[in-house]
UniProtKB/TrEMBL annotation:
Binding site for ATP: 246-253
Keywords carried by this UniProt record: ATP-binding, Membrane, Nucleotide-binding, Transmembrane, Transmembrane helix
InterPro entries in the cross-refs: FtsK/SpoIIIE/SftA, FtsK_dom, P-loop_NTPase
Protein name as catalogued: S-DNA-T family DNA segregation ATPase FtsK/SpoIIIE
Provenance organism: Spinactinospora alkalitolerans
Transmembrane segments annotated in the record for this chain: 74-92
Domain of life of the source: Bacteria
Length: 471
């Protein structure tokens, strides 16, 4: 075989390869000082033109103050300011919500724009790796607007052309720390248009007591707790199946009990039933009288699940060709099959036959039960496939505190962690806090389930809620 004489010789990295013996480089031309000065002046004029548009109230106030002072002197200015302050004070006391919306939150937004976001924008984004370079120039996403709600700042951002919202979603932790916020969530409005939401404080830090029992039960929107933005968190049960995942002590019981509590009037009037599987015998046994069916051993649990399958198939046979949607009635009530620690019957039970039968029954219920009014609400500690390979049959999932970062996407679906659903970082002192995905939005929402105490369950089981009043 012929070998080149140079084979194996070290190649000098600086030596030009034959095709590049002539190298072109851009000449450096010194910019005349007049151009630099003209550019600064142009930028200053641009800023002065934009200021009244961006901060009309602040600029208007300053302009009026200067005009009054110039025309009538400082005494007149002091009088005008005193009258304005008294007016604001009266507005605040008499109409606090409109004052808050139109004055306080707007002033706060302007302040946070200038002091927090404008000031730290470039260093934080560069260090977080969100600055792009092209032809030796640096390009940053641009702040379009900052607005404040009672609990968070929403920074609307125009992305650099050629970048994607996913680039920002992957840096939410850096952004949150960079701007001193507990978390950051990304919402995509449209092309190159995203909103970064930074909470200013944790609205879910205080536990929420059991919610009042609703007068009219909406099985598609059961009040179960509070969302981070202060709105009620409503859990859909009819027409879906819900999987609640969290480590021990994360608060799975509070989700289950809040749902049962919200169904109480329907349970009492016979239009809803709860069939409970309680392998730990600790969580659900307390309110046993509320359940139409109850099982606390492996054999009994499988029997209950298979009975639910038969009932569901009987309904499906009766509905076939006549009715496509289930409406709860006393004859055909909505059935919520509540399974606490579902892995006990699908993975941990020593009898293989029990595990197989339980898994088959759950697969049948979750794949066919929705349209005939049978829903499964299951709780689970470990979301891995080996433990519950049916997890994708649950359309709705709730991620309470999890063990590992990798479990977040297992529960809430791909991309949930990048969008800020840091369920593995939930404080152990905040049981009941969870991330959920609401219908029609890929952005995960942070919620806290209401805590239903033993006394509340006692009262519920004792029938105090009859008639739909608060228990
Ligand atoms: N929503 C909540 N708000 C406030 N405290 C809560 C809430 N949920 C649970 N807790 C507290 O945390 C404790 C553990 O909750 P819970 O038993 O529901 O956890 P779990 O996830 O079901 O745990 P395990 O899997 O071990 O049963 C409760 O005894 C209660 O003190």
């Amino acid at each position: 075989m012929l070998r080149s004489r140079n084979a194996g010789a070290a190649v000098q990295p600086t030596a030009p390869v034959p095709a590049q013996t002539v190298r072109f480089s851009t000449p450096v031309v010194e910019t005349p000082g007049i151009f630099v000065l003209a550019r600064w002046i142009a930028r200053l004029v641009g800023l002065l033109v934009r200021l009244p548009v961006r901060f009309p109230v602040a600029v208007g106030t300053a302009a009026v103050s200067v005009a009054v002072w110039h025309a009538f002197g400082w005494v007149a200015l002091a009088v005008v300011w005193t009258v304005a302050d008294v007016g604001l004070l009266v507005w605040w006391r008499r109409w606090p919500s409109s004052f808050r919306r139109l004055v306080a939150l707007r002033a706060l937004a302007a302040w946070r724009w200038v002091w927090v976001y404008r000031r730290h924008w470039q260093p934080v984004l560069v260090v977080a790796g969100l600055a792009e370079s092209y032809q030796e120039r640096q390009y940053l996403p641009r702040i379009r607007r900052v607005t404040c709600s009672a609990w968070s700042d929403r920074v609307r951002v125009r992305l650099v052309a050629g970048t994607a919202p996913a680039d920002v979603e992957q840096r939410v932790t850096e952004l949150a720390h960079g701007f001193g916020a507990p978390s950051c969530r990304v919402t995509v409005n449209g092309p190159r248009d995203v909103v970064l939401e930074f909470p200013r404080f944790d609205t879910l830090a205080e536990p929420i007591g059991a919610l009042p029992v609703p007068r009219h039960v909406d099985l598609a929107a059961l009040p179960a707790g509070k969302r981070e933005d202060g709105a009620p968190w409503r859990l859909r049960l009819h027409g879906t199946h819900v999987l609640t995942v969290g480590v021990t002590g994360a608060g799975k019981g509070s989700v289950i009990w809040s749902a049962v509590r919200a169904m109480l009037p329907a349970i009492e009037d016979g239009t809803a039933q709860v069939w409970a599987v309680d392998p730990k015998r600790m969580e659900l046994s307390y309110g046993r009288s509320l359940f139409a069916e109850y099982a606390d051993t492996g054999e009994a649990a499988v029997g209950l699940l298979e009975a639910a399958v038969s009932m569901m198939q009987d309904r499906a046979a009766r509905y076939a060709g006549k009715q496509r949607v289930h409406t709860p009635t006393e004859a055909d009530p909505f059935v919520a099959v509540v399974v606490d620690e579902v892995a006990f019957v699908t993975a941990y039970h020593p009898d293989r036959d029990i595990r197989r039968r339980a898994e088959n029954a759950l697969a049948t219920l979750t794949s066919q039960g929705r349209s005939v009014g049978v829903s499964v609400l299951a709780a689970l500690q470990d979301p891995r496939k080996e433990v519950l390979n049916l997890r994708n049959l649950f359309p709705d999932k709730i991620a309470l505190r999890l063990d590992e970062a990798s479990q977040v996407d297992m529960v809430l679906g791909d991309g949930a962690r990048e969008r800020g659903a840091n369920a593995h970082l939930i404080d152990p002192d905040l049981p009941g806090v969870a991330f959920v995905r609401l219908e029609g939005s890929p952005a995960p929402v942070r919620v806290r389930a209401a805590f239903v105490s033993d006394a509340d369950i006692d009262a519920m089981a004792g029938g105090c809620g009859r008639g739909g009043g608060a228990v």
